[in-house]
C-alpha cells in the first residue's frame, strides 16, 4: 500500500475542480490514481478504450476494476504495474514500462476477458510543498499493432517456410528429373529451346551439344521428319501426343550419318501461370532393340514357312513327324504376329525403408490394373515378390545406393482369379537422395517385356525346328540323289544290255526271211506275223533309244546356257517337221518378238519345241486341220514360251498323268511316251516349270516358264 503526507480531502479541495476539467479534456489514454491506488479520474478516451464509465470506476481500487485474468494464472500484470508505480514514487521520476499484456474484463460477459497489450508510463505528481498528490498513468493500446506485427511475423515465417519447402520441392524435382531412368527434356518457347536435359536424354546423343539451342538447330535432321509437325501441333493446341514405335532417323554424334532408331515418346505442353502454352516436356524411350527383336521373330517365322513350302514341293509325301512340325511352326507364326504390346514407360517412386508407393504413373498402374498401389508398402501391394530376387535387389539398392538394372527379370504374379502367370520385366532401380544426401527412397523404371521374351523363346524353338527340318531336307535330298543315280544306272544298263539281244532278234528275223520259201512268204498269215515281229522290234529299238536319251539327259550339264535366237530355232524345227506339216495340212503361227533371245541350252530348247509341235500335229482333231500358235513374252517372273493347238485335248485323268514316262493316251499315232517326260525334265533342270491348260475336244496350251 502506498502512503502520502497529504490527506485525500486536502488534495480534493485544492485540485478537484480544475484537475477534473483538465483530465477529461485530454485526448490521450490517461488514468489518475491516488497514492493508495484509488482511481481518481480518467480521460474520455481511456474510458472508451477500457469499455467502462467514469461512475463505474472513480473511487474504486485500481486492481478491483482491473484484476488479473484468472485464465492466465502464470501471468500477473497487476504486480508488474504496482512495481512500476512504486519505482516512480521512489525515484520521483516517470517510470516507463515494457510492453505488457494486461487483459480487461468484458462488460457484458462476467468472468470473460479481452486480450490487450499496453505501452504505459507512470508519472508521480507533487504539490508546491513537494508532497505526492497522485500518480498519472498514461498508456497506449498497442494490441492491434502488436497483433498486426505478430501476424506479419507469422506470415513472414510461413512465407519463408513455404519458400523453403518450395525450394526443397524444386531441388527434389530437379534431382528426380535428372535421376529419372527415362530420357526427359524441357523445351522453352515457340522455337523449342532446350532448357533442361536430364542425363538419360543426353546419353541418347553423347556427341551433340543441345542445351540452350533450339530443337531443330541442335538436331537439324528432324526438320524434314513427321516429328516436326507433331511438336508444332502440340505447342499450338496444348494436346499431349504419344508416339509408339515411331522410326526417327537421327545421328547420335555431330557430323555422323543418321541411324534408324525406333522411339516411344510423349510430347506434353507446359503452361505458364495464365494457362498459356510456353514450352514442351519430352519423355522418350529408345525401343529399337525391341522392334528389331520383333522383326527378327517375324522374319524367322516367314523363313520357316517358306522352307516348309519348299519341302512340300520337293518331298511329296511327308512323315507324320514332319507334318506335326509344320503345324506347330504355323501356329507359332500366327502367335508371333500378335506379340509385342506397346506402352509408355512405367515409373513409380517408393518412399522410405518400407518402400511405400509415393508416386505411381498411369503406365505403371496399368501393369497391375486389379491392385491398389498408392500409399501401400511394396510387399503389401505385391506380396508375390517377397523373397524373390527382385525384392532383394530393391533392398540392395536402398542399402548401397548403387543403381541396379535388369533386362529380363522373371517375376510370377497372381491374376485376379488367383492363378499364377509368368511375367518378365526390364527395369532400373535407382536410389533417391534427400537434401542431406541420404537415401530416402527409390525411383523405379519398369517395362514389361513378357511378349518379347516369349517371342524370342518362340524364335529359338522355331530355329531348332528349322535346323531339324534342314537336316531332314538334306537327308531327303541325299535319298533323291541316290535314287536318281540308281535310276540313271538302271536306264543306262538296260539300254546298253538290251541292244545286243534285239540286234540278234533282228538278225535272226533277217535269216528267217531268207530261209522261208516264196510260197510261205506269200501267205497272208505268215506276212502278218512277220510284220508284227518287225513292228515289235522297231518299237523296242525306239524304246531303247528313248532310254538312252533319258540317260543322256540326266548326265548333261544343267548350267550350260547359250543365247538362242528363238525365231531362228523355230524355223529350223519347222523345217524338220515339214513332211508332217504337209501331210496333216497344219498351219503354224509365230509371235516371238517379246523375247527374241533366250538364255538356254540350244539343243534342249530345240527338243522342247520339236516335241510340243510334233505332238500338236500328231494329236490333231480328225474334223479339222491342225492350227498351232507359238508365242513368247517377257513377264515379271521371267520368259514364257507357249504352244497352243486346236487338237483333241485331254480329260482330267489324262492330264494328271501327262508327263509320266512311257505314258500314251492315243494309239492311232506312233510314239514312245517319253517326249513330254523329257520336256518336263529339261525345263525343270533349268529351274523352270511347264503348265498345261486344255479343253477336251477343243485343244491344249503348253506354257513353259523360264526364270530370269
From TrEMBL:
Record keywords, A-Z: Coiled coil, Kinase, Phosphoprotein, Transferase
Gene Ontology molecular function, alphabetical: phosphorelay sensor kinase activity
The Histidine kinase domain, residue ranges: 493-708
The keyword Oxidoreductase belongs to this UniProt entry's keyword annotation: no
One Pfam family in the UniProt entry: HisKA
Reaction(s) catalysed (UniProt annotation): ATP + protein L-histidine = ADP + protein N-phospho-L-histidine
Chain segments annotated as coiled-coil in the UniProt record: 149-176, 452-479
E.C. designation(s): 2.7.13.3
DNA repair is among the record's keywords: no
TM region positions: none
PANTHER family with a match to the protein in the record: PAC DOMAIN-CONTAINING PROTEIN, PHYTOCHROME-LIKE PROTEIN CPH1
UniProt protein name: histidine kinase
Organism whose genome encodes this protein: Pontibacter indicus
Amino acid at each position: 500500500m502506498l502512503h502520502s503526507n497529504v490527506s485525500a480531502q486536502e488534495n480534493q479541495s485544492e485540485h478537484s475542480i480544475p484537475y477534473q476539467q483538465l483530465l477529461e479534456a485530454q485526448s490521450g489514454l490517461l488514468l489518475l490514481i491516488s497514492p493508495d491506488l484509488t482511481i481518481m479520474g480518467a480521460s474520455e478516451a481511456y474510458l472508451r478504450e477500457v469499455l467502462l464509465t467514469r461512475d463505474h470506476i472513480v473511487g474504486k481500487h485500481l486492481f478491483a476494476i482491473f484484476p488479473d485474468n484468472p485464465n492466465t494464472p502464470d501471468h500477473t500484470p497487476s504486480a508488474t504495474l504496482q512495481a512500476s508505480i512504486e519505482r516512480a514514487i521512489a525515484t520521483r521520476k516517470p517510470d516507463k514500462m515494457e510492453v505488457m499484456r494486461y487483459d480487461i474484463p468484458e462488460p457484458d460477459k462476467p468472468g470473460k476477458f479481452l486480450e490487450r497489450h499496453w505501452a504505459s508510463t507512470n508519472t508521480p505528481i507533487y504539490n508546491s510543498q513537494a508532497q505526492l498528490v497522485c500518480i498519472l498513468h498514461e498508456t497506449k493500446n498497442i494490441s492491434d499493432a502488436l497483433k498486426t506485427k505478430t501476424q506479419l511475423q507469422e506470415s513472414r515465417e510461413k512465407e519463408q517456410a513455404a519458400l523453403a519447402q518450395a525450394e526443397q520441392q524444386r531441388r527434389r524435382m530437379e534431382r528426380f528429373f535428372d535421376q529419372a531412368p527415362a530420357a526427359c527434356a524441357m523445351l522453352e518457347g515457340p522455337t523449342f529451346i532446350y532448357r533442361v536435359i536430364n542425363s538419360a536424354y543426353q546419353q541418347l546423343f553423347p556427341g551433340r551439344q543441345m542445351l540452350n539451342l533450339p530443337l531443330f538447330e541442335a538436331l537439324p535432321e528432324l526438320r524434314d521428319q513427321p516429328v516436326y509437325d507433331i511438336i508444332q501441333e502440340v505447342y499450338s493446341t496444348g494436346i499431349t501426343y504419344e508416339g509408339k514405335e515411331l522410326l526417327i532417323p537421327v545421328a547420335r554424334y555431330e557430323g555422323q550419318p543418321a541411324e534408324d532408331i525406333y522411339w516411344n515418346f510423349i510430347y506434353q505442353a507446359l503452361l505458364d501461370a495464365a494457362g498459356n502454352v510456353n514450352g514442351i516436356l519430352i519423355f522418350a524411350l529408345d525401343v529399337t532393340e525391341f522392334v528389331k527383336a520383333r522383326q527378327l521373330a517375324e522374319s524367322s517365322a516367314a523363313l520357316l514357312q517358306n522352307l516348309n513350302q519348299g519341302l512340300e514341293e520337293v518331298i511329296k509325301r511327308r512323315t507324320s513327324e514332319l507334318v506335326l512340325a509344320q503345324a506347330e511352326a504355323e501356329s507359332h507364326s500366327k502367335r508371333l504376329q500378335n506379340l509385342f504390346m506397346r506402352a509408355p514407360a512405367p515409373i513409380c517412386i517408393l518412399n522410405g525403408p518400407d518402400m511405400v508407393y509415393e508416386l505411381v504413373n498411369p503406365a505403371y498402374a496399368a501393369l497391375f490394373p486389379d491392385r491398389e498401389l498408392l500409399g501401400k508398402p511394396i510387399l503389401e501391394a505385391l506380396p508375390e515378390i517377397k523373397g524373390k530376387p527382385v525384392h532383394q535387389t530393391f533392398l540392395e539398392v536402398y542399402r548401397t545406393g548403387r543403381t541396379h538394372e535388369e533386362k529380363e527379370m522373371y517375376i510370377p504374379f497372381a491374376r485376379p482369379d488367383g492363378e499364377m502367370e509368368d511375367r518378365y520385366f526390364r527395369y532400373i532401380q535407382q536410389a533417391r537422395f534427400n537434401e542431406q544426401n541420404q537415401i530416402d527412397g527409390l525411383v523405379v523404371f519398369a517395362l514389361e517385356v513378357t511378349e518379347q521374351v516369349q517371342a524370342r523363346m518362340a524364335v529359338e524353338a522355331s530355329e531348332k525346328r528349322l535346323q531339324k527340318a534342314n537336316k531332314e531336307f538334306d537327308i531327303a535330298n541325299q535319298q533323291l540323289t541316290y535314287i536318281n543315280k540308281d535310276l540313271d544306272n538302271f536306264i543306262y544298263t538296260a539300254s546298253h544290255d538290251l541292244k545286243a539281244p534285239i540286234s540278234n532278234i533282228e538278225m535272226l528275223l533277217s535269216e528267217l526271211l531268207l530261209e522261208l520259201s516264196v510260197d510261205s512268204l506269200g501267205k497272208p498269215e505268215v506276212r502278218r506275223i512277220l510284220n508284227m515281229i518287225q513292228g515289235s522290234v522297231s518299237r523296242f529299238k525306239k524304246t531303247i533309244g528313248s532310254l538312252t536319251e533319258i540317260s543322256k539327259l540326266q548326265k548333261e550339264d544343267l548350267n550350260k546356257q547359250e543365247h538362242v535366237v528363238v525365231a531362228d530355232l523355230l524355223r529350223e524345227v519347222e523345217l524338220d517337221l515339214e513332211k508332217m506339216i504337209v501331210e496333216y495340212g497344219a498351219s503354224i503361227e509365230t509371235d516371238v518378238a517379246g523375247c527374241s533371245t533366250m538364255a538356254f541350252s540350244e539343243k534342249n530348247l530345240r527338243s522342247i519345241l520339236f516335241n510340243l509341235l510334233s505332238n500338236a500335229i500328231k494329236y490333231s482333231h480328225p474334223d479339222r486341220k491342225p492350227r498351232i500358235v507359238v508365242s513368247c513374252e517377257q513377264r515379271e517372273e521371267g520368259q514364257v514360251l507357249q504352244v497352243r493347238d486346236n487338237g483333241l485335248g485331254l480329260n482330267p485323268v489324262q492330264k494328271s498323268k501327262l508327263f509320266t514316262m512311257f505314258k500314251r493316251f492315243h494309239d492311232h499315232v506312233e510314239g514312245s511316251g517319253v517326249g513330254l517326260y523329257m520336256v518336263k525334265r529339261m525345263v525343270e533342270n533349268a529351274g523352270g516349270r511347264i503348265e498345261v491348260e486344255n479343253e477336251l475336244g477343243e485343244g491344249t496350251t503348253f506354257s513353259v516358264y523360264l526364270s530370269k
